[in-house]
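[recover] target loaded
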């Protein structure tokens, strides 16, 4: 059983008809192929307006719609709960607290009450499915930090593991959280708690050491607390390499490449790409400033360069996100005005959710993909770009503050805060010898092909099997 806040399929009305949409979320993109392969139940918040109209009396529906392979069980939240638990505690307190992207976390007692209430609700939904049976419950992310202990209390036979998709900060940062003890206590209800990289796992152990009367066993990378042992591990998440590679090679993508080149008036070769949820951790303004600097330093690219930025609107009920959208709008406007000539503008800004075919077409069209996160647990866009680069002719510029940078050593590793240097690296990406581009991309592709999403899931399941 997988438990997460976000659901992998959302039902909504369009022109009076029910339609299914897949959200732009790294977590669901990564786990859906795993659930398709192994079956089981996925418990998640039913967030679509038509969600309750398609589920049965136990709030369940079989998915994916085109070829059902597993069950999605939806948990219903009212507006107040969604506001306090999701927009409040999870995304205004825990998200900035864990990312250290220089945004101050907002701690509101009312949000914390909602967070506890919603975690209880999810525990109830899990217990309805599991009961006294043996089961493997795989909890996802920072929305459900209290769930592991709650599930253990209700389902004593269950083995509970948790994957934390975002960074874990160092103890100095985490200590300001008013509910640090409760959150750590909830997470230590797990049999195994995993992060993307060792650095985050070590930060977690240090935090527990500082805050709780617990016994960390550094050699075993485990924590013994209230008589229970929680193993702390790291498994770098990934993408479904073969499927992306195969899809990127199909006719519809090739067709879209031609259409998009025309519609967006893209140049033949010098195309840069950014794809993100519009989130301040992704460093979109920093990236645009570097493009501005690059064009100042290399004016000869005027008329023969485009940077395509896809930014899917995200968490727009949080003020910080609305401010970010305004900042991006302003920067795009300013840079296009400053460098534009006639009909040519350097930045093509697409603040919308694109269909997967378009994403693949853009990955293939791009000479370089720029991932400039200020801090990112992993970053799947980097791995998708590599998997889609079937012609091995693209350069990946990757922030050193992503989990992905630990594995993708053949990318050009960048610091999004160093604008001038990044501008030079953009120039380097455009002028790199073809042989070197190919050499680097081949090695990147070998890494992602081997360390794919099935390996990630297999490693976790194997490790748990051994623990149990
Ligand atoms: C969290 C962690 C970690 C984006 N735009 C569109 C679209 N997307 C898809 C991408 C990618 C996914 O959304 C974003 O994944 P990321 O990993 O980059 O980022 P988060 O959502 O922040 O994910 C992150 C991840 O969890 C997994 O553990 O890597 O560090 O923050 O798959 O392709 N998809 C579609 N249209 C778009 O316009 N269809």
């Amino acid at each position: 059983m997988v438990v997460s806040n976000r659901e992998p399929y959302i039902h909504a009305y369009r022109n009076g008809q029910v339609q299914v949409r897949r959200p732009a979320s790294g977590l669901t993109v990564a786990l859906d192929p795993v659930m398709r392969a192994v079956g089981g139940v996925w418990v998640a918040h039913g967030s679509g307006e038509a969600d309750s109209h398609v589920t049965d009396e136990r709030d369940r529906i079989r998915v994916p719609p085109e070829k059902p392979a597993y069950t999605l069980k939806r948990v219903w939240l009212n507006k107040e709960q969604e506001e306090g638990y999701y927009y409040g505690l999870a995304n205004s307190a825990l998200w900035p607290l864990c990312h250290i992207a220089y945004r101050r976390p907002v701690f509101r007692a009312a949000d914390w009450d909602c967070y506890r209430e919603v975690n209880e609700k999810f525990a109830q939904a899990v217990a309805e499915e599991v009961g006294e049976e043996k089961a493997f419950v795989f909890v996802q992310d920072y929305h459900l930090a209290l769930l592991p202990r709650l599930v253990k209390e209700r389902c004593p036979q269950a083995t509970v593991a948790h994957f934390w998709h975002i960074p874990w900060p160092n103890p100095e940062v985490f200590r300001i959280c008013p509910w640090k003890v409760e959150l750590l206590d909830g997470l230590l209800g797990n049999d195994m708690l995993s992060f993307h990289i060792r650095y985050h796992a070590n930060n977690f152990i240090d935090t527990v050491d500082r805050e709780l009367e617990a016994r960390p066993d550094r050699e075993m990378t485990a924590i013994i607390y209230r008589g229970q042992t929680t193993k702390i591990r790291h498994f770098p998440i990934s993408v479904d390499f073969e499927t992306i590679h195969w899809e990127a090679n199909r006719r519809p993508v090739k067709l879209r490449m031609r259409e998009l080149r025309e519609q967006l008036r893209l140049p033949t070769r010098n195309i840069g790409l950014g794809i993100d949820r519009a989130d301040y951790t992704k460093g979109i303004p920093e990236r645009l400033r570097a493009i501005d600097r690059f064009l100042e330093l290399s004016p000869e690219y005027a008329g023969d360069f485009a940077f395509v930025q896809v930014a899917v609107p995200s968490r727009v009920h949080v003020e910080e996100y609305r401010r970010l959208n305004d900042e991006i709008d302003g920067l795009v406007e300013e840079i296009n005005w400053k460098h534009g000539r006639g009909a040519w503008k350097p930045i093509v800004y697409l603040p919308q959710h694109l269909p997967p075919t378009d994403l693949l077409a853009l990955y293939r069209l791009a000479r370089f993909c720029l991932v400039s996160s200020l801090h990112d647990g992993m970053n799947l866009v980097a791995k998708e770009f590599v998997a889609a680069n079937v012609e091995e002719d693209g350069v990946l510029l990757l922030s050193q503050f992503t989990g992905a940078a630990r594995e993708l050593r053949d990318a050009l590793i960048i610091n999004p805060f160093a604008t001038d240097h990044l501008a030079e690296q953009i120039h380097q990406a455009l002028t790199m010898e073809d042989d070197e581009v190919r050499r680097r991309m081949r090695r990147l592709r070998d890494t992602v092909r081997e360390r794919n999403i099935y390996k990630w899931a297999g490693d976790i399941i194997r490790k748990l099997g051994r623990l149990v």
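[recover] notes: The chain has a mean pLDDT of 96.
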